[in-house]
Amino acid sequence: MKTITTTELLDKVDANEDLFLVDVREDEEVANGVIPGAIHIPLGSLPDRIDELDKTKPYIFICHAGGRSGSACSYLTGLGYDVTNMEGGMLAWEGELEF
């Protein structure tokens, strides 16, 4: 599984790179803030909302600590998606948040 550190992702955000971020935390968790530009698809809803993802785009998956986003990445890799897991999750994120 491909991974990215929060520092590496922050560098990409700061460089205004075109990123496709997916936050798989639950509603009450994202109420505390998300990385700007991230879309919210709770992990349990992913199979039902898979049509919202484009197989031609590289996605970075985010959760609280890295476990759920890792599960999402494993699932989607098996379906042919280009996905990367953000290591450490939002616990390790030190960048801006969007509310």
UniProtKB/TrEMBL annotation:
Source organism superkingdom: Bacteria
Gene3D superfamilies: Rhodanese-like domain
Residues of the Rhodanese domain: 15-98
SMART domains (UniProt xref): RHOD
Pfam families: Rhodanese
Positions in coiled-coil regions: none
Classification via PANTHER family: FAD-DEPENDENT OXIDOREDUCTASE (PTHR43031), SULFURTRANSFERASE YTWF-RELATED (PTHR43031:SF17)
Protein name, UniProt field: Rhodanese-like domain-containing protein
